[in-house]
Design goal:
single chain; 247 residues; alpha/beta; Rossmann fold; 4-stranded antiparallel sheet; 10 strands; binds adenosine-5'-triphosphate; ATP binding; P-loop_NTPase; transport; ABC_transporter-like_ATP-bd
Length: 247
């Protein structure tokens, strides 16, 4: 599928990434080109070591490709100076981690508004209320992370990631530490923010069930794109993965 550049939330253009040099060089990405349309939910799967984290880090501007270009909307990340890149990461990309990464000394409200406060941006109270309602945490604004379950902490982390209304929400194994039922709640939440507020979500996962919540599942193998499925069932995802090696 070819998507016009104007509608792409993210675009990779012949991206390669090599770690180290000479005999120790490891090539993690080997010429990835793709567009992620706005307002869609994409899952990335692949065997261990296939390059998923490297891919996500390049899109997030946390790592630079060795060659090729990465765009967030019309902004080419590799063309930015460090201070500009920091601002893009802070204000235009939301990141959700497997381990939640909330600040334990801060309340739910303080965690969610931290980025805005650090960036000297006004906290949009109406948006904050909507986010808290969406993630089902309105009753918990004054609690600290240690007083919440894992699923609740991950919902706070999602609200935090959405607080600046980012162009893209990137998630690295967001359900990896959650039980089945809580995982489903988090995945439904991703689905809702895509369907109801047009958020773009890109998620790396090992779980075929998690991937089946996405509109598109991309497969990586040995640093290359190795297939793509649209709205697949968990069984179809698992079947595709078995052809790619150990996972
Ligand atoms: N900082 C680094 N230095 C050297 N090699 C690295 C570095 N980071 C990743 N690699 C290598 O690049 C390749 C891709 O790694 P990456 O972490 O992107 O894969 P992955 O698909 O996310 O794996 P996993 O599912 O196990 O987390 C692997 O061979 C890995 O060993």
């Amino acid at each position: 599928m070819t998507v016009g550049t104007q509608t792409a939330a993210m675009r990779l253009d012949s991206v390669t990434k090599t770690y180290g040099e000479g005999d120790n060089a490891v090539t993690a990405l080997r010429g990835i080109s793709l567009e992620v349309p706005r307002g869609t939910f994409t899952a990335v799967m692949g065997p261990s070591g296939s390059g998923k984290s490297t891919f996500l880090h390049c899109i997030a501007g946390l790592d630079q490709p060795t060659t090729g270009r990465v765009f967030l909307g019309d902004t080419e990340l590799s063309g930015l100076k460090e201070a500009q890149l920091t601002a893009v990461r802070r204000e235009r990309i939301g990141y959700v981690f497997q381990a939640y990464n909330l600040m334990s000394a801060l309340t739910v409200r303080q965690n969610i508004t931290l980025v805005a406060r650090l960036a000297d941006m006004a906290v949009d109270e109406a948006w904050l209320r909507e986010l808290l309602t969406r993630v089902g945490m309105s009753e918990y604004v004054d609690r600290r992370p240690g007083q919440l379950s894992g699923g609740q902490q991950q919902r706070v982390a999602i609200a935090r990631a959405l607080a600046t209304r980012p162009d893209a929400l990137l998630a690295d194994e967001p359900t990896g530490a959650l039980d089945t039922r809580t995982s489903q709640e988090v995945l439904k939440l991703f689905r809702q923010v895509v369907d109801e507020i047009g958020q773009t979500v890109l998620m790396v996962t090992h779980d075929p069930v998690a991937a089946s919540y996405a509109d598109t599942v991309l497969f990586l193998a040995d640093g290359q794109l190795a297939g793509r499925l649209y709205k697949p069932s968990p069984a179809e995802v698992a079947e595709h993965m078995t052809h790619l090696g150990d996972w």
